[in-house]
Amino acid sequence: QVQLVESGGGLVQPGESLRLSCAASGFTFSSAAMSWYRQAPGKERELVASITSTGGSTNYGDSMKGRVTISRDNAKNTVYLQMNSLKPEDTGVYYCKATTIRRLHYWGQGTQVTVSS
Fold this sequence. Notes:
The chain is mainly beta.
């Protein structure tokens, strides 16, 4: 079955960095577009970043643009999100999403990121 397992979240201070990972299995990772979303308390889930199956193209949401980088390693079936200069408003649950070549969508369980002094 499809599994997306996020890791790397935690508690950091403002201005610090985190690198999230999402390990995928159960589908052809190298053919799937991958995305990171986040959901802050009381807010809707929003796109943080996405990357095409080959990694040749990326897209970033406005909220973290310039402070995040999405990348992938198709040999390891893993997608990453490097987040820098974190702010308290970046606090939330970060989710990994896969979109397969058949346009099926799968979500991970999420990893909590808390930015607080």
